[in-house]
Inverse folding.
C-alpha cells in the first residue's frame, strides 16, 4: 500500500476563498482522522470518522470548517471562507482498530497558506 | 482527560553522544503512549509505543523509551546520536479504553532535536 495520500501537498489561497483538502486512507482502515499543526497550538485533532461516519467533530474550530467521508477511500476537509489564521499544516491519518496493536498512519500533510 | 508535557522544546547534542527527550503525561485511565518523529517537510512516523506489556519499549533506529507509572513519565533515549536523528519528536498519549475503539491521540508540543557534528 502507498500509505495515506494527501493532496495537494501545498496550497496557497486568498482570504475568502474556499479550500478543499483531500485524503485517501490506507485500504481497509476503519478510522480516519484530520489533524491541524500550527506553531502556536501544536497538533490538534479536528475530527475523526469510523466506517465513514463522523464520530467526534469537537475539534473543528468553526462552522467554516467541514469534513466529509463519502466512501471508505476518500475524505475531504473544506474551509469556506478561508482566513489567514487557518494557515497551518493539515494531516490526515488512518488506522485499523486492533486493540492495543492499533497504529495510526499519517499522510505527509498539506501545507495551507492563506494570504 | 489526557495531556502530555514535553519538558524541552529544543535539545542539542553532539553526534555520538546520548539523547534524552523528556515527556510527562497525565491520563485518567490506563494510557497508551507513543513517540512520533517528524522530519522536515515530512509526515509523522511512529518510533515506538507502550501499551500494557514491557515497560521498556524498543523502537526503530535504536530509540528506546521507559514507561514509569510512579513518575508518570515516558522519556525517549538513544545511546548514540546520529546526524539523521535531527527532527521534531512528539510524545503522544491515548486512553486505551475508549468505547468507540478509536485512539484519539493527544500530542505534546514537540521537541526539536539538533545534532552537532
Amino acid at each position: 500500500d502507498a500509505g495515506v495520500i494527501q493532496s495537494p501537498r501545498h496550497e496557497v489561497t486568498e482570504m475568502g476563498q474556499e479550500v478543499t483538502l483531500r485524503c485517501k486512507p490506507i485500504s481497509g482502515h476503519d478510522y480516519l482522522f484530520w489533524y491541524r499543526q500550527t506553531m502556536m497550538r501544536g497538533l490538534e485533532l479536528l475530527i475523526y470518522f469510523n466506517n465513514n461516519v463522523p464520530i467526534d467533530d469537537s475539534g473543528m474550530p468553526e462552522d467554516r470548517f467541514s469534513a466529509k467521508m463519502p466512501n471508505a477511500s476518500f475524505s475531504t476537509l473544506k474551509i469556506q471562507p478561508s482566513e489567514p489564521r487557518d494557515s497551518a499544516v493539515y494531516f490526515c491519518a488512518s488506522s485499523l482498530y486492533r486493540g492495543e496493536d492499533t497504529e495510526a498512519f499519517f499522510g505527509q500533510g498539506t501545507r495551507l497558506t492563506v494570504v | 482527560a489526557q495531556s502530555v508535557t514535553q519538558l524541552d522544546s529544543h535539545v542539542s547534542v553532539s553526534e555520538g553522544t546520548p539523547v534524552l527527550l523528556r515527556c510527562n503525561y497525565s491520563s485518567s485511565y490506563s494510557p497508551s503512549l507513543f513517540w512520533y518523529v517528524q522530519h522536515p517537510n515530512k509526515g509523522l512516523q511512529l518510533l515506538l509505543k507502550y501499551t500494557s506489556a514491557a515497560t521498556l519499549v524498543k523502537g526503530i533506529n535504536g530509540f528506546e523509551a521507559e514507561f514509569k507509572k510512579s513518575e508518570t513519565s515516558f522519556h525517549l533515549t538513544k545511546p548514540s546520536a546520529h546526524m539523521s536523528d535531527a527532527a521534531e519528536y512528539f510524545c503522544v498519549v491515548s486512553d486505551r479504553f475508549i468505547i468507540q475503539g478509536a485512539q484519539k491521540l493527544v500530542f505534546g508540543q514537540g521537541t526539536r532535536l539538533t545534532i552537532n557534528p
Summary: Chain A has a mean pLDDT of 93. Chain A touches chain B through 25 residues (CB under 8 Å). Chain A has no helices and eleven strands. The first strand of chain A starts at residue 5 and ends at 7.
